[in-house]
């Protein structure tokens, strides 16, 4: 729901003083029959239900999971006083005997809130659904949000279904390198949070909002699009010393409205190869929509690191997967017509696993993405020129990639790294394997291009080319000796972790500590960033808490 410029969106959410269900036995309510849970925050929210018709739902943040609501088409609202109303809804018309009417006694915080709520109620009841409705306090545009324009609905549905499940949030929480580094970055940089307004972009379980509140945030808006928002409410409500300062808002950061600007954004938008899931774009949109000028972003910058690698075992493993299709008599059927397709298919899967950094053939280079400056559109296509100098003579099987992000706190800048050789994270590392290996000599230059093109399924197509230049006597004539290219889909990785491998160094290769010489290779770095980009000093300090 993108607001046309100059107009504000209508509000769909109202914080209430209390709400009580009239159908509950009176013993469940206080003697005066008014509030159910005056101490717990109660939220009334208008939303389109599964049938597409507008509904009014009440959420009680007292730890109970009792979301109740009514369809506006069957509901009426009556004012009992300046800040008190009754909402009644009829049971379904088709099945009168079996369904009963519902009634709610609503207490607003102010007369203005009551007014705004009533206007919205009547308007939505008239319109039938929220999409495209003109609200009295703003406009809800029919135009698709930036998210919906870019992303296929089926992809988004699966994506938010995934994050709506607690087990996947737990998986991230149990990555202690990840969560511990976030905790350290926030707590060590209290000064950036104390008394500040924070937006948690893609809050998930709400963990980063809770960290920000622990660090003294004045208020945290936890924006989460998936069903996890309800669990986040529950988790936050169960931490009462912090919950007063956190508001969970269910919706996409591209679509929700916040009542005030943020001093700092916190988020964990990184996917495999940093950019997978295309959530960095949402992070940047959140920056443009919610962050005050000169506001901070945690994380602040990200870097994609790349180096050629040699891994005979991995190469053979992938090439062999397609061998099945070389059978000429599989139950008397010739499978070979599909061999080429199968072979290409296996090499189009980037490999996700943790590898030994000694497999790297040259010191890595990196590409910087400054979250505070990058334009959202700049993330649609990422083009990285590659230039390496081989440290050993070997066969190069492809390009190894990983990333790190910087929390540029005003007290302690801190890096979260996913580098090979550093404590392993749930991101592991990523390797693009080429079907045609390259031969290099020590000292020989390897050039090429890594070209990432975003697609509508919240991921990227990877175009990789590696080349070796003429080397030794006759090199003056220049020229490319060998070229190898591949097209891979970042959305379809091969998770190799389930089949642990021993990290044997290629026979003809001496171990090299290439990672340590990384600062010598800054070809792709943006000079402006130089001050931010010293090698992470605290990589191994990621185990915090
Ligand atoms: N901040 C949590 C969760 C990180 S996972 C943590 O650090 O543990 C990223 C979360 O962002 C997911 O829960 C996902 O549903 C949410 N998300 C992704 N894109 C979003 C968007 N455009 N708007 C709102 N939430 C989004």
UniProtKB/TrEMBL annotation:
Matching InterPro entries: Arg_MeTrfase, CARM1-like_PH, PRMT_dom, SAM-dependent_MTases_sf
Pfam families hit by this protein: PH_PRMT_N, PrmA, PRMT_C
UniProt keyword annotation of Cytoplasm present: yes
Keywords assigned: Chromatin regulator, Cytoplasm, Methyltransferase, Nucleus, S-adenosyl-L-methionine, Transcription, Transcription regulation, Transferase
The EC number(s) this enzyme carries: 2.1.1.319
GO biological process entries: methylation; regulation of flower development; vegetative to reproductive phase transition of meristem
GO molecular function ontology, one term from the record: protein-arginine omega-N monomethyltransferase activity
Family annotation (CDD domains): AdoMet_MTases
Cellular component terms (Gene Ontology): cytoplasm; nucleus
The UniProt record lists the keyword S-adenosyl-L-methionine: yes
Reaction(s) catalysed by this chain's protein: L-arginyl-[protein] + 2 S-adenosyl-L-methionine = N(omega),N(omega)-dimethyl-L-arginyl-[protein] + 2 S-adenosyl-L-homocysteine + 2 H(+)
Subcellular location: Cytoplasm; Nucleus
Span of domain Protein arginine N-methyltransferase: 304-458
Organism domain of life: Eukaryota
Domain Probable histone-arginine methyltransferase CARM1-like N-terminal PH: 13-126
PANTHER family according to UniProt: HISTONE-ARGININE METHYLTRANSFERASE CARMER-RELATED, PROTEIN ARGININE N-METHYLTRANSFERASE
Official protein name in the record: type I protein arginine methyltransferase
Organism: Corymbia citriodora subsp. variegata
């Amino acid at each position: 729901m993108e607001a046309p410029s100059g107009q504000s969106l209508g509000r769909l959410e109202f914080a209430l003083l209390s709400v009580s269900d009239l159908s509950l036995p009176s013993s469940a309510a206080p003697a005066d029959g008014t509030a159910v849970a005056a101490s717990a925050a109660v939220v009334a929210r208008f939303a389109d239900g599964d049938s597409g018709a507008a509904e009014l739902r009440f959420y009680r943040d007292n730890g109970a999971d009792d979301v109740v609501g009514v369809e506006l088409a069957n509901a009426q609202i009556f004012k009992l006083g300046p800040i008190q109303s009754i909402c009644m809804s009829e049971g379904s018309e088709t099945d009168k005997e079996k369904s009963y009417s519902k009634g709610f006694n609503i207490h607003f915080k102010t007369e203005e809130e009551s007014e705004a709520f009533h206007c919205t109620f009547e308007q939505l009841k008239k319109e039938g659904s929220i999409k495209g409705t003109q609200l009295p306090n703003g406009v809800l545009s029919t135009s698709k949000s930036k998210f919906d324009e870019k992303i296929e609905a089926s992809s988004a549905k699966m994506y938010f279904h995934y994050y709506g499940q607690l087990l996947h949030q737990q998986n991230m929480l149990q990555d202690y390198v990840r969560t511990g580094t976030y905790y350290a970055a926030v707590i060590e940089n209290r000064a950036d949070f104390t008394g500040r307004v924070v937006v948690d972009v893609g809050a998930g379980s709400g963990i980063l909002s809770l960290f920000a509140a622990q660090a003294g945030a004045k208020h945290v808006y936890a924006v989460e699009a998936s069903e996890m928002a309800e669990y986040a409410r529950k988790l936050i409500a169960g931490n009462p010393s912090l919950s007063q300062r956190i508001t969970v808002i269910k919706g996409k950061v591209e679509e929700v409205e916040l009542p005030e600007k943020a001093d700092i954004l916190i988020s964990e938008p990184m996917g495999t190869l940093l950019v997978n899931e295309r959530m960095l774009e949402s992070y940047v949109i959140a920056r443009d929509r919610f962050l005050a000028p000169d506001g901070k972003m945690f994380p602040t910058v990200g870097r994609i690191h790349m180096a050629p690698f040699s891994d005979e075992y991995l190469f053979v493993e992938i090439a062999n997967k397609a061998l099945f299709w070389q059978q000429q008599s599989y139950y008397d059927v010739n499978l070979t017509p599909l061999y080429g397709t199968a072979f290409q298919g296996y090499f189009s899967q980037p490999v996700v696993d943790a590898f030994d950094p000694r497999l790297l053939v040259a010191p890595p280079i990196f590409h910087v993405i400054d979250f505070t400056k990058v334009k959202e559109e700049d993330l649609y296509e990422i083009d990285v020129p590659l230039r390496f100098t081989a440290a050993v003579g070997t066969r190069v099987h492809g390009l190894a990639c990983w990333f790190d992000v910087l929390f540029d706190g005003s007290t302690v800048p801190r890096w979260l790294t996913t580098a090979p050789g550093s404590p392993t994270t749930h991101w592991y590392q990523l390797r693009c394997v080429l079907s045609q290996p390259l031969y290099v000599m020590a000292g020989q230059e390897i050039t090429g291009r890594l070209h990432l093109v975003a697609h509508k399924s919240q991921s990227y197509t990877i175009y990789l080319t590696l080349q070796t230049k003429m080397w030794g006597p006759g090199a003056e004539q220049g020229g490319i000796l060998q070229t190898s290219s591949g097209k891979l889909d970042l959305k379809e990785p091969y998770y190799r972790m389930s089949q642990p491998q021993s990290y044997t160094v290629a026979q003809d290769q001496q171990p090299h500590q290439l990672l340590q010489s990384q600062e010598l290779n800054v070809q792709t770095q943006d000079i402006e960033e130089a001050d931010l980009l010293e090698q992470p000093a605290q990589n191994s300090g990621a185990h915090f808490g």
